[in-house]
Amino acid sequence: MIALYIVLGIIGAAILFYFLPTMIVSNVIYTVLLVRKNKDKWSRTVSWDNEEQKQMFAIGEEWGKKYEQYRKTISITSCGFKLVAEYFDFGNDKAVIVIPGRMESGTYSYYFSEPYRKAGYNIVAIDNRCHGLSEGKYNCLGLKEYKDILNWARYIHDELGVKEVVIHGICIGSATGLYAICDKECPDYIKGIVADGMYINFNESFKNHLIERKKPLFPYTQEVMALITLVAGRSPKKHGPINYVNRLNKPILFIYSKEDTYSVPKYGQLLYDKCSSEKKVLEWFEHGEHSHVRINQTEQYDAAIINFLKENC
Question: Which pTM does this prediction carry?
Fold first, then answer.
C-alpha cells in the first residue's frame, strides 16, 4: 500500500510539474483575450493594427458624424452593470441592435449600420458589457451577455416607442444575439437576426486561432475553456450556437465569407442545415477575412440585408 501511495505521489507530482507552467500560460491567454483590467482596454478606438479594420472604423466614424443630429446616448442597468449605447433615431418605429464582436465598441458598429438606415430602421449601437463606456470586467462570450440584449430590446420598446427590433451580430456578437433570440423570455417584438461570421462554438474558433499561429492545441484549449466555464458558468464547448440554432423559430440571415479561417465555411453550412427556422437564408461571399465581409463586397452585403429584412421581417 505504501508503495502504491509513493507511485501515485510521483505520478501526481509529474502531472503537477507538467501542467503548472501550461496553466500559467493559459491564464495569461485567457486574461488577454477576455478580461478587461482598465478602461483603456476595448475602448471606443480601433481595436487592432489591421488596414481593413482601420478603414472600417474610419468609415464608421464618418457615418456617425454624418448623422450626428440623430444621435443620443442612452443607458440601462443590466445584471448590475451600467451599459451604454448610441441611439440614432431616424423617426422610425423599427430598430436594429448592433452587437459587435470581442474588443469592439458601439462606435465600430456604425460601420454596419447603413443598410439598416436605408431599410427604415433606427440604430442602437451598443457598447457590450466590459467594452467602451459600459461597465464590467469579464467577457463571457455571450453566455451571460445575452440577457443584456433582451434588456436593451425591452428598453427601446418600452421607453423609446420602438415596435419592432432586429439583431445584427458580428462574430461573438452573432452568438450573443442567437442566445437572446432563442431564450424563452425573448419578446415577440424581436423579429429576426442577421449573423455575420457565427461560429459553431468558441472552442472551435479558439482552436482555429491557435492553428493559424502554429501553436499547440493541447492542453491550452482545454485549460482556457475551463477558465471560461468557471467565470461564465457554462461550457463554451457545450453551449455554442450549434447547441441553440435548432431552437430558433424566427428569421435568420447567415453571412459567411469563403475565406474565413475562424468561422470556417463547413461549420457555417452545418449551422444553416441544423437551424430550425422556417425563414433562414444563407449568403456566401467570395472574399473577406473574419468579420471583414462588408468591406470587400459592400453593395452585395447591404443588398443581402435589405432584401432579408423586406422579405422576412
Answer: 0.95
